């Protein structure tokens, strides 16, 4: 499968996941709003997600995929599948006891993540209970991550990319049950009951994801039976390879940890504003950055292991080009039109105009870092393909310190907006440091095509931003009365204008569309 087709597969399904996620968040906003119950639920949801990125989708995945690919090339698929089953056993040996420990220790864990909740008679006990109900999701998503890494290494990207769709649909089903219950009793269900149902729903969604991936793996001919919970020599080697990445991922999660801690110390609603803004910010990050990184790592691993360095350099350049093509317009649009976007999507039910304004400011600050994050995903994949884990670790340590310093300073003056702005600026620092490292390793050499098209993509995105800013003013009255319709017009017009400008400037050419579907 070509890199472009792989990116389209992952990105397209990620779009579906984000759409389902938006529907989910619209229902959450209507049910919980941005008050103390919502803050408690989002903290409970944040905790297993932080550790998921560390255990499952972080260090483990980036170490597992190159090893699995190498095992296929050297010893065949049967040996690679045996290694995958051993890796699953080793992963569960760590995650299951850890999950039981964390559930029991939750009254002491929540204050570490959200010290501002201590002494709060509503948020603290709710966060503890909600977190206990959501935490089993970590074990389930670990199974999902390993099966996804196995299928991605076999160039079967669709199932793994569709797994988040299953998660969102399961939570939508829980929210729909709340709405039906509300309709049956003839009045709204209180936020506390809704939060309880949603917390149980997170673990239920993890079960659905795991069953989906097991079915997909079986369809691909991958046979992973219940593994022995032990550490084999290959798994120990995998652990040694993953250890620097685990440290890096852990240090990286400190940034998210610090943002939650700082937000918990701010007035009610700060945690929720950051959550809703980050959900929109994650759309381009997931559709573009994660999709490119997911598709690029197996392809780069094959080229590097075969010694085809020139081909690997070309893949890095095409990954950067594809990332900028989609990241730049997303950045401009989310900055210029943050207010109408948030209002059109979330302003209903318990989510009022004040929450819209606060969330829109946060979104604009987050959006500054979108191109930096996406470039970092491409460059990180190049490092991991070389089994270079110490370089990204050093970069992560430096950037975490930078982000922490910025967040502490900016939050004093800008509140929750300063926390988001520090994350956006840190993404650019990450991209710059990774680029310098790969330049020294001679794996990052920008070709003529990227040098020519990059500035043209930026010009096209800025032109689109001017049109969006003008349309926002022209549609001002419509945004007050028909927010959703005005938002559809704004987004559709922006896409048309940007697409036209990319062809007019030569940033995109007709033969590019043909190359996307070439199986090269």
Q: Could you explain how this protein is built, in words?
A:
With 520 residues, the protein is mostly helical. Helices cover 84% and strands 0% of the residues. The radius of gyration is 23 Å and the shape is globular. It starts with a helix and ends with a helix. The model has no long low-confidence stretch (mean pLDDT 77).
Helix-strand layout with pairing:
Elements: H1 3-32, H2 36-55, H3 59-75, H4 77-104, H5 106-113, H6 123-134, H7 137-153, H8 158-185, H9 191-219, H10 233-265, H11 270-305, H12 309-336, H13 338-346, H14 353-367, H15 370-385, H16 390-414, H17 416-440, H18 448-474, H19 476-481, H20 483-505, H21 510-516
Helix pairs in contact: 1-8, 1-11, 2-6, 2-7, 2-9, 2-10, 2-11, 3-4, 3-7, 3-10, 3-11, 4-7, 5-6, 6-9, 7-8, 7-9, 8-9, 10-16, 10-17, 11-12, 11-14, 11-15, 12-14, 12-15, 12-18, 13-14, 13-20, 14-17, 15-17, 16-17, 18-20
Instruction: Report the principal-axis shape.
Output: globular
Number of helices: 21
**What portion of residues belong to β-strands?**
under 5%
Distance between the termini: 7 Å
How would you classify the helix and strand content by structural class?
A: mainly alpha
Give average pLDDT, whole number. 77
Helix content: over 70%
The major beta sheet can be summarized as: none
Q: What string gives the helices and strands in order?
A: HHHHHHHHHHHHHHHHHHHHH
**Number of strand segments:** 0
Radius of gyration equals 23 Å
Low-pLDDT runs of 5+ residues are none
């Amino acid at each position: 499968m070509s890199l472009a087709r792989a990116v389209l597969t992952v990105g397209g399904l990620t779009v579906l996941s984000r759409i389902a996620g938006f529907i989910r968040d619209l229902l959450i906003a209507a049910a919980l709003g941005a008050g103390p119950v919502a803050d408690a639920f989002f903290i409970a949801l944040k905790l297993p997600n932080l550790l998921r990125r560390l255990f499952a989708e972080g260090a483990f995945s980036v170490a597992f995929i190159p090893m699995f690919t190498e095992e296929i090339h050297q010893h065949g698929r049967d040996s690679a599948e045996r290694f995958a089953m051993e890796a699953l056993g080793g992963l569960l040996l760590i995650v299951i006891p850890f999950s039981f420990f964390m559930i029991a220790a939750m009254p002491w864990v929540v204050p570490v993540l959200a010290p501002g909740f201590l002494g709060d008679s509503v948020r603290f006990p709710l966060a503890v209970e909600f977190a206990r109900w959501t935490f089993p999701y970590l074990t389930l998503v670990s199974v999902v991550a390993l099966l996804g890494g196995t299928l991605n290494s076999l160039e079967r990207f669709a199932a793994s990319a569709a797994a988040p769709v299953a998660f969102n649909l399961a939570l939508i089903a829980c929210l729909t049950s709340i709405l039906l219950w509300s309709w049956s009793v003839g009045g709204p269900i209180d936020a506390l009951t809704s939060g309880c149902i949603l917390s149980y729903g997170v673990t239920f969604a993890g079960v659905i994801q795991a069953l989906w991936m097991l079915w997909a793996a079986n369809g691909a001919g991958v046979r992973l039976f219940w593994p022995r919970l032990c550490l084999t020599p290959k798994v120990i080697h995998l652990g040694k390879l993953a250890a620097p990445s685990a440290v890096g991922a852990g240090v990286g999660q400190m940034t998210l940890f610090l943002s939650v801690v700082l937000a918990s110390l701010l007035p009610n609603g700060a945690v929720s504003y950051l959550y809703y803004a980050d959900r929109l910010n994650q759309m381009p990050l997931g559709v573009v950055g994660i999709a490119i990184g997911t598709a690029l790592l197996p392809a780069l691993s094959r080229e590097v292991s075969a010694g085809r360095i020139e081909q690997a350099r070309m893949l890095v350049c095409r990954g950067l080009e594809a990332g900028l093509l989609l990241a730049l317009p997303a950045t401009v649009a989310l900055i210029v039109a943050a207010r109408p976007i948030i209002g059109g999507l979330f302003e209903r039910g318990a989510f009022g105009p004040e929450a819209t304004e606060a969330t829109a400011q946060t979104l604009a600050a987050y959006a500054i870092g979108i191109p930096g994050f996406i470039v970092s995903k491409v460059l990180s994949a190049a490092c991991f393909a070389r089994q270079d884990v110490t370089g990204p670790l050093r970069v992560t340590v430096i950037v975490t310190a930078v982000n922490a310093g910025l967040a502490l300073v900016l939050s004093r003056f800008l509140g929750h907006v300063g926390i988001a702005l520090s994350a956006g600026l840190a993404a650019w620092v990450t991209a710059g440091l990774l680029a310098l490292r790969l330049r020294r390793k001679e794996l990052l050499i920008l070709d003529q095509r990227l040098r020519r098209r990059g500035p043209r993509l930026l010009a096209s995105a800025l032109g689109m931003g001017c049109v969006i800013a003008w349309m926002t003013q022209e549609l001002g009255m419509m945004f007050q009365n028909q927010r959703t319709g005005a938002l559809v017009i704004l987004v559709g017009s922006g896409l048309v204008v940007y697409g036209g400008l990319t062809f007019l400037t030569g940033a995109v050419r007709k033969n590019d569309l043909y190359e996307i579907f070439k199986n090269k």
